[in-house]
Every structure is written in C-alpha cells, then in structure tokens.
Write a structure and sequence with these properties.
By secondary structure, this protein is an alpha/beta fold. The protein has one domain: Rossmann fold. The protein contains nine helices and five strands. A five-stranded parallel β-sheet has the order 2-3-1-4-5, sandwiched between helices. The longest helix has 15 residues. The radius of gyration is 16 Å and the shape is globular. The structure holds BIS(adenosine)-5'-pentaphosphate and magnesium ion. Magnesium ion binds next to helix 1.
Length: about 190
C-alpha cells in the first residue's frame, strides 16, 4: 500500500486536487476535516466535542483523528493506497502515523505539499464561504486563527518529512489545472 500525505495550509486546494489524484492513482481519499464534519452533521458525541473546537479554528485532540485514520486503513480495501488530506497536522500525529504503519511494516510513501501565501488563504476561503457555508469559514477571525494554528502546529511537519526524505513541495498559485499538472508531475515520479 502507498500512503500519500496531501499537505498544505487551509484553503491551499487539498480537497480540490484530491479528487483527480484519487482517480488517477487509484487511492482512497481520507479527509479528517470531512470525517469530522460528518460526525458533526450526525450529532454524535464526538461531533459535539469537535464542533466547538473547529468553529474556533483550533485543532481537535490528536487521539480523535488518529483513531479515525486507523479505522479507515482497516476497513478500506481494493485501492493501491491512501491519500491523507489534513492529516497529520501535528508532530505527535505524524509520529502516531509512523507507529500505525510500522505495525504492518509499512511507511509513509511521500508528502505532496501545496503552498500558497497567507493572503491567498484568506481570499480563497472567503470565496468558498459564499458557496459551501462551512462554519469554520464564517469570519475573518476564525480564518486568521486557522492560519496561526497552521503556522504554529502544522508547519513543523515540513522539517519532519524533509528530514525523512519524504517532502515534495509544489507551488499552489495558479489555476486548478496548472496546480494539478504540477502535482501529477511529482506523483508520476514517486
Ligand atoms: P480541514 O477540512 O482539513 O480544513 P483545512 O486544512 O483548513 O483545509 P480546507 O479544507 O479549508 O482547504 P483545502 O486545502 O481543502 O482547500 P479547498 O480545496 O477546499 O479541517 C477543518 C478543521 O477540522 C480543522 O481546522 C480542525 O479543527 C479539524 N481537523 C481536521 N483535521 C485535523 C487533524 N488532523 N487534527 C486536528 N484537527 C483536525 O480550496 C479552497 C477554496 O479555494 C475552494 O473554494 C476552491 O474551489 C478554491 N481553489 C482551490 N484551488 C484553487 C486554485 N488553484 N485557484 C483558485 N481557487 C482555488
Ligand atoms: Mg479541504
């Protein structure tokens, strides 16, 4: 099995690009954000706990998303690999992922990182807010907090995966098609 991490700040285009990637490379897309939103919509206890944190632009506890990921790995079959979107997002989550994969003598194949400047994060998320109505897109304050959370808690993963020789960065500025071409160019080499 291949394990690709689709990395990048909020609004970089992870969800947008994931659709074509899973199709071309026969992968199963796991978005921890989407899984959490499903729990919220279903009104589960986990969803209730996550809702308050997500709506502030904070991360949910590591154990919550780690459990979700391990469950998906166990239950999904018939693919060549997984595309992790929005996970890992902290160093402890990256270490947990390594430990989960080590149980079956596997490892992260590669990280594909989509980078855009902070100013563009704000523009893109404000654009999506008009179409999708996500609670964490609702105000500049929440979006700013997500950007700060990204820089403080998630950005250190760039060094983590660079050191492991598993980090590939692509420029996320450009049309959706241009960014997709850059991603495919990198993926074809992996
Ligand atoms: P999550 O759902 O993962 O959100 P995120 O990382 O903030 O990323 P987004 O989904 O906002 O952006 P995206 O990169 O997918 O961009 P998109 O393709 O939509 O997480 C939500 C929350 O859940 C977190 O804040 C946290 O609370 C919690 N959570 C999730 N995972 C967690 C974890 N592992 N640990 C702890 N907590 C976790 O694109 C954005 C917009 O831009 C769209 O409108 C799109 O159409 C547009 N667009 C995309 N590409 C382009 C382009 N090239 N040109 C122009 N527009 C574009
Ligand atoms: Mg997304």
């Amino acid at each position: 099995m291949k394990y690709f991490i689709l990395f990048g700040p909020p609004g970089a285009g992870k969800g947008t690009q994931a659709t074509a990637m899973v199709e071309k490379y026969n992968l199963h897309h796991i978005s921890t954000g989407a899984l959490l939103r499903k729990e919220i919509a279903a009104g589960t206890e986990l969803g209730l706990q996550a809702k308050a944190l997500i709506e502030k632009g904070c991360l949910v506890p590591d154990e919550v998303v780690e459990g979700m990921i391990e469950n998906e790995f166990k239950t999904v079959t018939g693919v060549d690999g997984f595309l992790l979107d929005g996970f890992p997002r902290t160093i402890p989550q990256a270490e947990a992922l390594d430990a989960i994969l080590a149980k079956t003598s596997e490892e992260v194949t590669a990280t594909v990182s989509i980078m855009i400047p902070d100013q563009m994060i704000m523009e893109r998320i404000k654009g999506r807010a008009l179409k999708e109505g996500r609670a964490d897109d609702a105000s500049e304050d929440i979006i700013n907090n997500r950007i700060v959370t990204y820089h403080n808690q998630t950005e250190p993963l760039i060094e983590y995966y660079s050191k492991a020789g598993r980090y590939n960065e692509i420029d996320g500025v450009g049309t959706i098609e241009e960014v997709q071409e850059r991603i495919f160019e990198v993926m074809d080499r992996l």
